[in-house]
Amino acid sequence: GENVEQHPSTLSVQEGDSAVIKCTYSDSASNYFPWYKQELGKRPQLIIDIRSNVGEKKDQRIAVTLNKTAKHFSLHITETQPEDSAVYFCAARGWVTDSWGKLQFGAGTQVVVTP
Amino acid sequence: AAGVIQSPRHLIKEKRETATLKCYPIPRHDTVYWYQQGPGQDPQFLISFYEKMQSDKGSIPDRFSAQQFSDYHSELNMSSLELGDSALYFCASSLSASGGSYEQYFGPGTRLTVT
Description:
The complex is a heterodimer of chains A (about 120) and B (about 120).
Chain A: E1 4-7, E2 10-14, E3 19-25, E4 32-38, E5 45-51, E6 56-59, E7 62-67, E8 72-77, E9 86-92, E10 95-96, E11 99-100, E12 104-105, E13 109-114
Parallel strand pairs in A: 2-13
Antiparallel strand pairs in A: 1-3, 3-8, 4-5, 4-9, 6-7, 7-8, 9-12, 9-13, 10-11
Chain B: E1 5-7, E2 10-13, E3 19-24, E4 31-37, E5 44-50, E6 53-57, E7 64-68, E8 74-78, E9 87-94, E10 105-106, E11 110-114
Parallel strand pairs in B: 2-11
Antiparallel strand pairs in B: 1-3, 3-8, 4-5, 4-9, 5-6, 7-8, 9-10, 9-11
Protein backbone atom coordinates (compact mmCIF):
# COMPACT_ATOMS: atom_id res chain seq x y z
CA GLY A 1 0.00 0.00 0.00
CA GLU A 2 0.85 3.66 -0.09
CA ASN A 3 3.37 5.04 2.40
CA VAL A 4 3.87 8.78 2.89
CA GLU A 5 6.84 10.21 4.73
CA GLN A 6 6.87 13.82 5.92
CA HIS A 7 9.71 16.02 7.14
CA PRO A 8 10.42 17.83 9.36
CA SER A 9 8.27 16.81 12.30
CA THR A 10 8.58 20.27 13.84
CA LEU A 11 9.41 23.60 12.26
CA SER A 12 9.98 26.90 14.04
CA VAL A 13 10.14 30.05 11.93
CA GLN A 14 10.26 33.76 12.57
CA GLU A 15 7.25 35.73 11.43
CA GLY A 16 7.79 36.85 7.86
CA ASP A 17 10.15 34.01 7.00
CA SER A 18 9.32 31.09 4.70
CA ALA A 19 8.47 27.54 5.72
CA VAL A 20 8.99 24.42 3.63
CA ILE A 21 7.62 20.96 4.35
CA LYS A 22 8.57 17.95 2.25
CA CYS A 23 6.81 14.65 1.62
CA THR A 24 7.61 11.51 -0.32
CA TYR A 25 5.19 8.81 -1.42
CA SER A 26 5.70 5.24 -2.54
CA ASP A 27 2.78 4.32 -4.82
CA SER A 28 3.22 5.57 -8.36
CA ALA A 29 -0.55 5.09 -8.87
CA SER A 30 -1.34 7.94 -6.46
CA ASN A 31 -2.64 10.89 -8.43
CA TYR A 32 -3.84 13.47 -5.95
CA PHE A 33 -1.82 15.20 -3.23
CA PRO A 34 -3.62 17.49 -0.78
CA TRP A 35 -2.22 19.44 2.14
CA TYR A 36 -4.22 19.90 5.31
CA LYS A 37 -3.87 22.32 8.19
CA GLN A 38 -5.16 21.14 11.53
CA GLU A 39 -5.54 23.13 14.70
CA LEU A 40 -5.79 21.34 18.01
CA GLY A 41 -9.04 19.40 18.32
CA LYS A 42 -10.35 20.65 14.99
CA ARG A 43 -10.95 18.96 11.68
CA PRO A 44 -8.24 18.87 8.98
CA GLN A 45 -8.77 21.81 6.65
CA LEU A 46 -7.67 21.56 3.04
CA ILE A 47 -5.34 24.44 2.23
CA ILE A 48 -4.05 23.45 -1.20
CA ASP A 49 -3.89 20.40 -3.41
CA ILE A 50 -2.20 19.27 -6.60
CA ARG A 51 -3.00 16.62 -9.15
CA SER A 52 -0.45 14.35 -10.75
CA ASN A 53 -0.66 16.11 -14.12
CA VAL A 54 0.47 19.44 -12.62
CA GLY A 55 3.96 20.34 -11.40
CA GLU A 56 3.23 23.42 -9.36
CA LYS A 57 0.28 25.30 -7.92
CA LYS A 58 0.13 28.55 -6.01
CA ASP A 59 -2.53 30.24 -3.91
CA GLN A 60 -1.46 33.56 -2.41
CA ARG A 61 1.22 32.77 0.20
CA ILE A 62 0.99 29.01 -0.26
CA ALA A 63 2.48 26.92 -3.04
CA VAL A 64 2.88 23.22 -3.68
CA THR A 65 5.31 21.51 -6.03
CA LEU A 66 5.18 17.93 -7.26
CA ASN A 67 7.96 15.82 -8.76
CA LYS A 68 6.32 12.64 -10.03
CA THR A 69 9.57 11.06 -11.12
CA ALA A 70 11.09 11.40 -7.69
CA LYS A 71 7.73 10.83 -5.96
CA HIS A 72 7.98 13.84 -3.74
CA PHE A 73 5.97 16.97 -3.16
CA SER A 74 6.51 20.04 -1.04
CA LEU A 75 4.52 22.79 0.65
CA HIS A 76 5.91 26.31 0.67
CA ILE A 77 4.50 29.04 2.89
CA THR A 78 5.90 32.53 2.39
CA GLU A 79 5.66 35.56 4.67
CA THR A 80 4.56 33.40 7.57
CA GLN A 81 2.20 34.83 10.16
CA PRO A 82 1.42 33.70 13.73
CA GLU A 83 -1.95 32.35 12.53
CA ASP A 84 -0.05 29.90 10.30
CA SER A 85 0.94 28.03 13.47
CA ALA A 86 -0.69 24.58 13.32
CA VAL A 87 -0.01 20.99 12.36
CA TYR A 88 0.28 20.46 8.62
CA PHE A 89 -0.35 17.08 6.99
CA CYS A 90 0.49 16.02 3.49
CA ALA A 91 -1.49 13.17 1.96
CA ALA A 92 -1.64 11.01 -1.13
CA ARG A 93 -4.60 9.36 -2.74
CA GLY A 94 -5.37 7.16 -5.70
CA TRP A 95 -8.36 5.47 -7.24
CA VAL A 96 -9.93 2.28 -5.87
CA THR A 97 -11.96 0.23 -8.36
CA ASP A 98 -14.62 2.85 -9.10
CA SER A 99 -14.28 5.45 -6.39
CA TRP A 100 -11.73 7.79 -4.86
CA GLY A 101 -9.48 5.94 -2.46
CA LYS A 102 -8.50 6.74 1.09
CA LEU A 103 -6.11 9.50 2.06
CA GLN A 104 -2.77 8.20 3.27
CA PHE A 105 -1.39 10.90 5.54
CA GLY A 106 2.13 11.83 6.45
CA ALA A 107 2.99 12.00 10.14
CA GLY A 108 2.48 15.76 10.27
CA THR A 109 4.62 18.84 10.84
CA GLN A 110 4.09 21.09 13.84
CA VAL A 111 4.73 24.62 12.58
CA VAL A 112 5.35 27.37 15.13
CA VAL A 113 5.59 30.94 13.90
CA THR A 114 7.08 33.28 16.46
CA PRO A 115 6.41 37.03 16.27
CA ALA B 1 -22.94 25.42 1.78
CA ALA B 2 -23.85 22.19 3.52
CA GLY B 3 -20.99 20.40 5.23
CA VAL B 4 -20.39 16.93 6.61
CA ILE B 5 -22.32 16.43 9.85
CA GLN B 6 -21.20 14.12 12.61
CA SER B 7 -22.98 13.17 15.78
CA PRO B 8 -22.46 13.13 18.61
CA ARG B 9 -19.61 15.62 18.90
CA HIS B 10 -18.48 14.21 22.22
CA LEU B 11 -19.03 10.78 23.70
CA ILE B 12 -17.88 9.29 26.97
CA LYS B 13 -18.14 5.54 27.43
CA GLU B 14 -16.80 2.97 29.85
CA LYS B 15 -14.65 0.01 28.92
CA ARG B 16 -16.53 -2.86 27.32
CA GLU B 17 -19.46 -0.62 26.36
CA THR B 18 -20.62 0.02 22.82
CA ALA B 19 -20.76 3.26 20.84
CA THR B 20 -22.36 4.36 17.59
CA LEU B 21 -21.04 7.30 15.62
CA LYS B 22 -23.08 8.84 12.84
CA CYS B 23 -22.05 10.69 9.72
CA TYR B 24 -24.16 12.62 7.24
CA PRO B 25 -22.19 13.37 4.08
CA ILE B 26 -22.57 16.44 1.93
CA PRO B 27 -25.70 16.07 -0.23
CA ARG B 28 -25.02 14.18 -3.47
CA HIS B 29 -21.69 12.87 -2.24
CA ASP B 30 -21.46 9.16 -2.92
CA THR B 31 -18.32 8.19 -0.97
CA VAL B 32 -17.84 8.21 2.79
CA TYR B 33 -14.62 7.60 4.71
CA TRP B 34 -13.94 7.04 8.40
CA TYR B 35 -10.67 8.01 10.04
CA GLN B 36 -9.38 7.62 13.59
CA GLN B 37 -6.93 10.14 15.00
CA GLY B 38 -5.15 9.52 18.28
CA PRO B 39 -3.42 12.32 20.22
CA GLY B 40 -0.43 13.63 18.28
CA GLN B 41 -1.06 11.18 15.44
CA ASP B 42 -2.07 11.53 11.82
CA PRO B 43 -5.56 10.40 10.83
CA GLN B 44 -5.65 6.66 10.21
CA PHE B 45 -8.06 5.28 7.64
CA LEU B 46 -10.62 2.81 8.96
CA ILE B 47 -13.12 2.07 6.21
CA SER B 48 -14.91 3.62 3.24
CA PHE B 49 -18.14 3.18 1.32
CA TYR B 50 -19.06 4.00 -2.24
CA GLU B 51 -22.70 3.92 -3.22
CA LYS B 52 -23.56 2.04 -0.03
CA MET B 53 -21.03 -0.71 -0.63
CA GLN B 54 -17.77 -1.10 1.25
CA SER B 55 -15.05 0.15 -1.08
CA ASP B 56 -11.92 -0.13 1.03
CA LYS B 57 -10.85 -1.27 4.45
CA GLY B 58 -7.95 -0.13 6.55
CA SER B 59 -6.82 -0.78 10.09
CA ILE B 60 -10.28 -1.24 11.52
CA PRO B 61 -10.51 -3.61 14.50
CA ASP B 62 -12.87 -6.57 14.25
CA ARG B 63 -14.79 -5.01 17.16
CA PHE B 64 -15.80 -2.18 14.84
CA SER B 65 -18.28 -2.36 12.01
CA ALA B 66 -19.76 0.23 9.73
CA GLN B 67 -22.35 0.61 7.05
CA GLN B 68 -23.81 3.16 4.72
CA PHE B 69 -27.56 3.44 4.47
CA SER B 70 -29.92 4.17 1.59
CA ASP B 71 -29.88 7.89 2.40
CA TYR B 72 -26.06 7.77 2.25
CA HIS B 73 -25.51 8.46 5.92
CA SER B 74 -23.05 6.15 7.59
CA GLU B 75 -22.68 4.71 11.07
CA LEU B 76 -19.59 3.37 12.79
CA ASN B 77 -20.42 0.82 15.46
CA MET B 78 -17.82 0.13 18.10
CA SER B 79 -18.18 -2.69 20.61
CA SER B 80 -16.18 -3.91 23.61
CA LEU B 81 -14.59 -0.51 23.87
CA GLU B 82 -11.02 -0.32 25.10
CA LEU B 83 -9.09 2.60 26.60
CA GLY B 84 -7.04 2.73 23.39
CA ASP B 85 -10.14 3.53 21.36
CA SER B 86 -10.17 7.02 22.85
CA ALA B 87 -9.57 9.28 19.86
CA LEU B 88 -11.06 11.75 17.45
CA TYR B 89 -13.13 10.03 14.79
CA PHE B 90 -13.56 11.89 11.55
CA CYS B 91 -15.94 11.19 8.75
CA ALA B 92 -15.22 12.60 5.31
CA SER B 93 -17.13 12.56 2.06
CA SER B 94 -16.38 13.07 -1.59
CA LEU B 95 -18.05 12.75 -4.96
CA SER B 96 -16.44 9.99 -6.98
CA ALA B 97 -18.85 10.05 -9.90
CA SER B 98 -17.74 11.61 -13.16
CA GLY B 99 -17.46 15.36 -12.78
CA GLY B 100 -16.88 15.15 -9.05
CA SER B 101 -14.13 17.13 -7.40
CA TYR B 102 -11.00 15.55 -6.00
CA GLU B 103 -11.49 17.09 -2.57
CA GLN B 104 -12.35 15.06 0.48
CA TYR B 105 -14.42 17.10 2.94
CA PHE B 106 -14.03 16.37 6.63
CA GLY B 107 -16.69 16.57 9.29
CA PRO B 108 -16.03 18.22 12.67
CA GLY B 109 -15.25 14.90 14.30
CA THR B 110 -16.52 12.94 17.29
CA ARG B 111 -14.30 12.90 20.34
CA LEU B 112 -14.66 9.51 22.00
CA THR B 113 -13.35 9.09 25.52
CA VAL B 114 -13.28 5.60 27.02
CA THR B 115 -12.88 5.46 30.80
